[in-house]
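User: Fold this; tokens only.

Assistant: Input:
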Amino acid sequence: SSGINAEYGGLDKRMSSGGFIHGFRYTSRALAHILAARNHKIRWPSSRVPLYGIVSFISRRLNEMSGPYQMFYMLVDVYVRYATHVELFTEIPHGMLHRLHELLVETRNTPLDMIVIRLEYGADYSKVGGDPFRADRVELDPFLAHTCNFIHPVLYHYTTLPHAVPIRGKKLRGYNKRMHLVEDLHTDFALIDRHIPALTNFLGTIWKIDLSFRPLEECLLNTLTSVYMPEFCRNPGILLSDVTREKKQVRVSASLKHKPTQLLDDYSIPC
């Protein structure tokens, strides 16, 4: 195992945590999956999520994904969209994304519509001579999430296989859209007034479906009076656990009602 550790530690030296046990354990598991796909045609493990529950699922996953948290930049979650569901492949090495079809045991020309999520630090988070206590170090405005310094989720949308990442490189290229979710000092990325609206608007815009927030009263009215049922109303209970959250949800919904793509436009920063 020491030889494998040395190999992986060299790939992410001074970029992530592969040289230590809290990172090495995840890269070792990823290596086992890579070898299983390459030598035995065993597909990378996955789970299916109904499309109507994708926002709440991703929100929960962002707070629980230990592999991408310990191996920031290097391990990513991949969500592949199909007609009625999304398939999640967890903890895939970012350097293997251009060969994702091999890990999924599919042909290279198989069409893909996917979201890649990984945790990243800002470019100025740590540098020689930097001031970690400067006044502008923390950014809590969702519209300025791309300027965050602390670890935060970044979502990349692809419709073709990503470009290859150079050895010891960390930039992902070839994406259609990119969105940063604002940092949180407690690494809670499921806040109803900072993260959920941004995530909802991003997914709804790129997939051209209505995933927008709806007050529970509006969901009830739709159930009783309309044939059309917004995606959020099909499973709103996942996100709401108390009256306080419901009140915040109504306020945020109203503020985004007439500008569904504004967060996407502001968050999509080209390389």
